[in-house]
Amino acid sequence: MRRDKKKVLSIIVPVYNEEKTVALILKTVSRLSLPGIQKDIVVVNDGSSDGTAAVLRKIKIPGVRIFQHEKNRGKGAAIRTAIPHTRGDFVIIQDADLEYDPNDYRKLLEPLIQGRADVVYGSRFRGVHRAFMFWHSLGNKFLTFVTNLLYDTILTDMETCYKVFRGEVLRGLTLRSDRFEIEPEMTAKILKAKCRVFEVPISYSGRGFEEGKKITWKDGFGALATLVRYRFLD
To answer: pTM of the full predicted structure?
Structure first.
């Protein structure tokens, strides 16, 4: 009897100054049970200045491959470094903090496995979440509103980290952003390519700046400019 070949999920983990959480998130992801799915974990240490590199050197988890940036270049640059090393039928982006719960992978993957979607977004605003910063939430909702206006869609959370792609879709994108503008750039390009995008609710435990959150209101201006630029100029 012929056995169906397992699907491969590549998990991109961009890391910058997460010495306290990176080992735990990698262990959590590696131990996660996903029937019929083989995991391929691609970590990019983006020039961390704390003890992250030392923690990663101690990681001995099967299926984890680690790449290094000599200096900090930004989340977008780390993701772009990782993409050519992915080999999965599906690819998800996983931040190295504890804001997002890998137990949501199953429902994120479902529309892809069923062949109904090309990309799946995990919406923090539709699921159970920690009450997080008002202005940060408002900024996210504003950028999502602009996305919907410019690209004629009805997303609820454009800036979510949990974006899951069919592997060939992500590897087929030409991405340029080095920092947090990678989120609106990916969104703009998959929407312009008429990809089938689904949203599912996810849980979210947002951090404050005192807990290590890195994105600030200033990054919102870059995201806005990115949305406009790729709508009309690229």
So the answer is: 0.88
